[in-house]
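Page 47, continued from p. 46.
Same chain as before, 371 aa.
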Amino acid sequence: MSTESAYIPRQKCFERDGRTDLKAFDRAGLEAWFIEQGDKRFRGHQVFKWLWQRGLDNFDEMTNIPKQTRTWLAEKATITWLKSAGVQHSKDGTRKYLWECHDGSHIESVYIPDEDHPGKARRTLCISSQVGCAMACTFCLTGDLGLKRNLSPSEIANQVLQVAQDLGPEKPITNIVMMGMGEPLHNLDGIIFAIRTMLDDDGLNLSHRKITVSTVGLVPAMKKLQSALPVNIAVSLNASSEEQRLQVMPITRKYSLDELIQTCKDLPLPKAKRITFEYVMMAGFNDSMEDAARLIGLMRGVKSKINLIPYNENPARDIKRPSAERVKDFQHYLVSRGVHCSVRVTRGKDISAACGQLGKASKEEAVPLSA
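Result:
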C-alpha cells in the first residue's frame, strides 16, 4: 500500500457527559491522548488492552495502572457500552441483538452461526454503522428510517465486543460483515477507527481477511477505504443496467453504474482478493436470463464474485422473491460462463434479521440478553 495514496483520517475526541470516550480511539489515538494528558504513551497501550481484551468497565480493575492515573482517568474519561434492549432468537440459530445508544436511539446486530463444518465453524456478525440510512434503496426497510446520525467508533466496535461476551469464549466470532443498518462508507472515518480496533492484536484481534465492508457504491470513499485498510469490499449492485439501477438505488444519480464498475476495475486489489457484488434478486425485475447476460458483461475485467440474494419478502413492500428454480437457473447461467457466483442462504427471516429487514425491531419483540 503506497503511503502517498493512503487515506489517513484524523483521530478526533468523542465525549460523553463531558468526559472522553476512550473506546472511540484506536490504539495509536489512545496512546497520543495519554501523552496529551501528560502521561506516558505505554499507559495508553495498557488501557487499550484492558478495554478490548479484557472488556473491563471499571478503571479500578486495571491493576497494572497506578492509582493516581486511575483517579484522573475516572474524572476525565469514560468507558462506554451499548445498552442491551434484548435479543431475538431465530429457529435457525440466528440472533438479532437490539442495542440502545446513549441518546435513546436503537441499532441492531445480527449473529449468524454456521456450525456444520467441524473444525471450520463460521460465526458471522453483521454490524451497523449508522442509526438509520440515507441511501433510500427502495427494497430496504432500513432506508425508511432516514439517516439519524453516524455511530461513533466505540458504538461500532462495541457491537463486536458485547456479542462476543454474550457468546462466550467457546464460540468466538470468526467473520465481521458491515452490512447492518446504515451505509458504512457514509461514515468512513468512524468505520476506519473501529476496524483498526478490530484488527489490532491487542484489540479484538480479527483478521483482515475476515472483515467485509459493504457499500452502495460511494466511489470516492471506496478508493479511500481501499488505501486505508486491507479489508474485503462488497458492492450492493442489484441491477444489470443503469436504467434498472436508477429505479431501486437513488445513489446511481450521483455515481453512475459505469463509474462504479470502472472504479472496481481500477482498485489495486491484492492478488488473492476479489470484490463481491451483492445482487438482490427481485421477481420480474432483475431475475431474467437477459439480466444474467448483462451481468457477465459488467463483470468483464473486474476481479469479482457475485452473491445472489433472493429478496426477503415483507408486508411493507410489494416486491416478490423469485422462485428457487429461477434462482438456480440464474446461478447456473453465470457459473457455466465462468463467473464466480454463490447464492446467499436466507437466515433469520422469522425475526426480521434477514438482508434488508433491519431497523424494525422493538423492545417488546426481544428477550433479555441473558435469556
